[in-house]
Amino acid sequence: MPRRFLVACFQEEESLLNAVRTVRGKGLKVYDVFAPYPIHELGVAMGIRKSRLPLATLFGTLSGLLVAIGFQFYANVLDWPMNVGGKPDNSTLAFIPIAFELTILFGGLITVAALLVRTRLFPGKHEHLLADGITDDVFALALRQPDRRAVASALRQSDVWKILEACGAKDIYERESPP
Amino acid sequence: MEILENLMTGVSIPSKSQFHQAPMLPPPKWVEGDPSLQEITDDVLRPMEGLPGRAWWICFALSAAALTMGLSMIGYLFSKGIGIWGENNSVGWAFDITNFVFWVGIGHAGTLISAILLLFQQKWRTSINRSAEAMTIFAVMCAGLFPAIHVGRPWLAFWLFPYPNQRGPLWVNFRSPLVWDVFAVSTYFTISLVFWYLGMIPDLATIRDRATNGIKKLIFRWVSLGWDGSHRTWSRYEVVSLLLAGLATPLVVSVHSVVSMDFATAVLPGWHSTIFPPYFVAGAIYSGFGMVMTLLIITRNTMNLERYITMRHLEAMSKVLLLTGSIVAYAYLTEFFSAWYNGNIYERYTFFSNRLAGPYAWCFGIMVLCNVLTPQMFWFHRIRGSIPALFVASILVNIGMWFERFVIIVLSLHRTFLPAEWGMFIPTIYDVGILIGSFGLFFTCFLIFIRVLPMIAIWEVKGLVGELRVHDRLVSNLRTLRADQEDGTQEAACA
How far apart are CA B272 and CA B166, in angstroms? Predict the structure, then answer.
């Protein structure tokens, strides 16, 4: 089923921020906000939870470290011990540089992979832009339609439009997006 | 900033006296002329959308010619073996490893600018980070070329990686710094590439949305991963950028440290030194910034990007050159001091008799002139503000840094412990040709990059301009409020 959205477009980041705060203050739920660059105050204004992506980094770095230490130990001590200049088979200190590099490598790659999975970005994905010029100079606020909270708080559609206009929206319209 | 925050939350309005006591410095303007968001997109993408100018074609023809020459010489090298180079029994490493260290060093500025300066919240990185990162990728490609063609049988270069094989499996020697190098450089390349690409996704989406040509739209749709500017994505994206910067920061420091261990773990006088890791890292940043400056001066002038790559940017970079150049000079002094102080005759011979007065003393002279004296010129404001002076200095920096690696490698090898082993290294036409070819590869890649991808991070510059605009508006609101308050006080006094 296609989803319907009420989209309000702004030209200034402050008007957008103001609109997000006002709309949430009225008890409505902000579906999402679209902007050409990240606006740092938006996270708090929209009530976005702290990201758990650092956990993916922790997992990646630890796995890189374990793989590197484990593999070097396996190759040099268990599988084929080799006498190089009389150094001990388990030359742990000499294993540190590679362990460090693989820690970073695994950490970085797994973090980026986690980001792509979490934000559902993948090569060839067809973009669904709710407003034109979002990647250029337009800021847009999207509200789900019909909004159960608006019904609950007895806000009529026209009231929501008025609120958004008062916040400085240049353009307000309804748009459908594919499911 | 506190005043601003108070104003934003509406907690309290500072009095006039407070305002005057703590004068608010406006944030530095890293973009000139206050362009609108749309103008920024247009300015950055214009060079990509039109046909290249004559200057671009001339540069491209020259670099492509150099690259072709380099490739044909590499082809000849493969058929004949590395005997066509000037290496001999005394000097087993010469131009190849010098070029490797030189290019890896140049590659350091990109990630330094994008990662370390991001962590330190240095806003001036925004208009130069993209091209510096691209430079890193191409420089590391050039660097990787040299060990690969130096192994003798380059078609077996994959033996450098530990993979299950039918020779035992016989694993690589994990205790060897050369193997550490393989891991360090390939990790550095991968992470830099991922960081560069990730930072480019929003801009690729901008190009996709502007594209009128169907094929171009299709390609950019594919590479922009369906980016739609959602703030939920942006917030995660920023978290990941910061995480990657945190990971890449120690990586930058580690790569050239590992490269320096190729030398420092040997017992050779001139190589066997504990200061090598920090000394190499400082030198790498120094040469990397030199190359970034050369490239940016050329591109800002030929592509009309003076608005975004301002004199302030060049000045900031020259200060980094001054700092890292001074660290390098200090490291040179330390090397000489240690050689004198430890009393070892071989060490003393290598530094005092050979480097200062040996047959290659002129290389040492060029190195000192370019790396010790040149950066000291940046103490003067007039030199930091002159484009021709900066351009010449940035080229001297890289000449000096190439000679530094040559001095370290060849001057230490050609006269070691036994005079019977002494020899001279004289480069052949193939040594020089492949070095020029690597410059051809680097500049060809860079010239193609500035034509097909946005060379300035559009979204980051927009964020910077947006932030400045909010600041300006808050300050003007504050002034209005102050004026109103003042009127109110005067009225009260009159009453």
Answer: 37
